[in-house]
User: Which sequence fits this backbone?
């Protein structure tokens, strides 16, 4: 069966360090992989999208990598700040016509001042 | 600003009493979704409308229904809420017609449903 795995345990890092979150998947052939941020009691907010033929995508302090051989995406936040504290969800969309987006459980990031 | 709006933000209902949650969008997106999200879980897709075409997920209980009277509005009806239906309900939109067919989801703030 299809599965998206994100570390459900919270990730605590010191302010200024680089946070790295992992998204692994099985039995998917994703056309796109997306990362969203979700704050408590709020809806997810889109951050970055990376296509299957892309290795890396950057946006300001954010960087996403996508390895379709390892079936893994890494999400990096450089120079992390307490305001980056949130839950980060990865989401996959299979290729082939219109396919729904499926979300992972998310990883809670806590940036400690 | 273009956005997705959900009302109410908090809804309390009694066990078995029908409830309707509403969603509106000013993005003019052709796809609208309803997700259920319980604490520390992934958003779970209940159904979506691609234009007027309704698409139900196979494991969505019959207790959940949806209506989309026009492009801007979508409603989630829970006919007989049970204690297990207490959750955050998220409405989202997307426009796969955008260049590249990218299905980025734009979410509303959610409605927190409590069932007493």
Assistant:
């Amino acid at each position: 069966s299809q599965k998206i795995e994100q570390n459900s345990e919270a990730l605590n890092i010191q302010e200024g360090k680089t946070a790295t979150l992992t998204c692994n998947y099985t039995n998917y052939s994703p056309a796109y992989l997306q990362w969203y941020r979700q704050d408590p009691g709020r809806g997810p907010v889109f951050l970055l999208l990376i296509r299957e033929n892309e290795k890396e995508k950057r946006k300001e302090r954010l960087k996403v990598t996508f390895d379709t051989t390892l079936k893994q995406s890494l999400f990096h936040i450089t120079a992390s700040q307490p305001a980056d504290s949130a839950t980060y969800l990865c989401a996959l969309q299979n290729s082939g016509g219109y396919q729904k987006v499926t979300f992972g459980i998310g990883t809670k990031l806590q940036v400690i001042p | 600003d273009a956005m997705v709006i959900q009302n109410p933000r908090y809804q309390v209902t009694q066990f078995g009493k029908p409830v309707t949650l509403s969603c509106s969008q000013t993005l003019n997106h052709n796809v609208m979704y309803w997700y259920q999200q319980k604490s520390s879980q992934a958003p779970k897709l209940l159904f979506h409308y691609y234009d007027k075409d309704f698409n139900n997920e196979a494991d969505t209980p019959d207790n959940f229904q949806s209506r989309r009277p026009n492009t801007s509005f979508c409603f989630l009806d829970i006919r007989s809420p049970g204690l297990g239906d207490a959750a955050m309900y998220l409405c989202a939109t997307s426009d796969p017609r955008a260049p590249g067919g990218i299905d980025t989801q734009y979410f509303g703030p959610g409605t927190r449903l409590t069932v007493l």
